[in-house]
Amino acid sequence: MRAAICQMTSGTDPTRNAQVIVKAVQEAKNRGADMLFTPEMAGQLDRDRKRAAATLVDEAHNIVLAQVCEAAAKAGLWVHLGSLALKDERSDGRWSNRSFVIDDKGKIRARYDKIHLFDVDLATGESWRESSVYGPGERVVTVDTPWARMGLSVCYDLRFPDLYRALTNAGANILLVPSAFTVPTGQAHWHVLLRARAIEAGCFVIAPAQVGKHEDSRETYGHSCVVDPWGDILLDMDTETGLALTDIEMERVADVRSRIPALTNRRTIPSEIETK
To answer: CA-CA distance, 135 to 235, in Å (whole number)?
Structure first.
């Protein structure tokens, strides 16, 4: 599979962000890609809740999703739309952070709502409270594509290996991690966490990321990566926006798993803990 990774600096206007993604779909197709992967919050990145709420809609009326589905069908290209902020009819009134896999006919094949929400106070003075705006997802999701079964996750999920254990138990051999990491956490943990998830699962990891200074004043780390099952980094986009392509040889999964059969050797961990 030839994967195209789109590293973005998404702004507050969904229309402009949609134009960037639609252009990337066609460019990816022209360059021989089989599937395009975009970051978390590809359609709108805005920490000003009041301003964001003015343009936020539900899935059925989201112009980014509609335009990307149309572009995918026109180009005949699979697309992983990393995530969109959506105004759903949740009982608690919170929004959803939802990832989509779209096939080459423009049909939505899978949806995943981010399970783990980033609530933290950083030493830099930055404070994040995702759970005050977004409701957590409740489903673990895999999707079959012509090349592999893919396991869906989003950004902060990366820190919770139990999710990836569930995904690989369900047969995933490519793990998707669209992200918008902060600079301090990215510098400290981004690469090591991606490599750890790849190594422990014997999977490819595809992690498109947001990068740079955004309209809402935040700054994201970038370094969109593709990591192979041995933990080797096949692609690192550093801090450049745009498109990069890499070839993924799925035979590598079987090769690595035969050398280190960690999935076969997995045991169920007892729920009771003995303390002495």
So the answer is: 32
